[in-house]
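QA checklist item 7 of 12: single-chain prediction sanity check.
[x] sequence parsed
[x] length recorded as 396
[x] structure emitted
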Amino acid sequence: MKRFFFRFYAVLTTLAFNALFAGQTQAASIDSKMFSAGGIQIDATAENAAAAREQAMQEGQKKALMVVMERITPAYVIEQLPELVPDDILNFVQDISVSNEKTSAVRYMATLDVRFNPQAVRDLLRQNNLPYVRTSGKPLLILPLYRRSVSSSPILWEEENAWLRAWINRKAESYMIPLFVPLGDLSDAQALSTDRILRGDLLAAQDLAKRYEAEGILIVELIRNGQTFTVKGRAMDEATASEIPNFSFSVPLAKNTSATFARAVGKVVRHLESVWKNEQMVQFNEAASLVAMTPVSDLKQWEIIKKRLDRIPLISSYYLQAARSGVLQLTIFFAESLERLQKEMNKRMLSLTVLPSGVFKLTTTEQLSFLPFGQNNSIVDATDVSMMPVAEEKTE
């Protein structure tokens, strides 16, 4: 029996080290959209087509890098963002996609999609002592409930749910929080009924979320009241609720309901991006570290812990030092204060405590269900906090 346990933890140690690096790669993949800029228009004229192309590409990459840096930093530091020369910018570029090329003897035009190396951009901002959002939020499953009037019952999978179609066909990009919308096919309807949402059936909702590789569930209800539409949002699980407070706002009827719904979707997306950016901004000019002992029963539990650590904004990196007797020893590097680190961990269902011996202990905590609906079948905004200001779109 002792030999079995020895082998188990030896294997766990090896797998855990491998899983750690695999997790870092996965996190980078999740963040790739956050550190990408698409639809960059370039247009340059020079003595010949080749020179025009080179000039346009350099200007486009510089513009794309500024788009990414402005996205992940607060507005008050925009004037302080570093400007790099073309040769330096190449060190940050991960890949480039070029489309819509047009060339003449002296002119070059195209559209660029540029993806940057997340860690290189983070290092650049840190070296310039600028605060930034280190990582994107966890992928969310959007459940778009629709009520055609204040007194009607909410619908989700029905054919007449134009609010669901607006989300499926949305053009509003979400860079900081990956958003997934169910297709609304028969398997979706069987997995999670509207009645189960009303009853706060978290397990059924999580089963549907897994199908779309989402880690949290956000209910977004649209209610029509004459010429006005009210949007109410509330997380269905505690971990998501700790990151995204309830929100509510109104949208007036535009030229038609389709345009109105598209506008409402855009406002929700921008609100979620704004909340994440404001809440996750971190100043990394001062770093600290701690060693934490983490009890694990198997590799699956370690994967859960690692995934949650990857989403904590204050943590710049962490390393697995040792594994023995079902306990992993981690060194965690973080910014700002220990108090905020503990709060951010609590948001992501982790607990960091100090034992009497002075050693830190890192454990997972249980996820609780919320009943998101009141007796009138509408989302209850317990905080009664209105939505943050969002830039208005022009009505076409």
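[x] summary fact logged: Residues 2-31 form the longest helix (30 residues).
[ ] second reviewer sign-off
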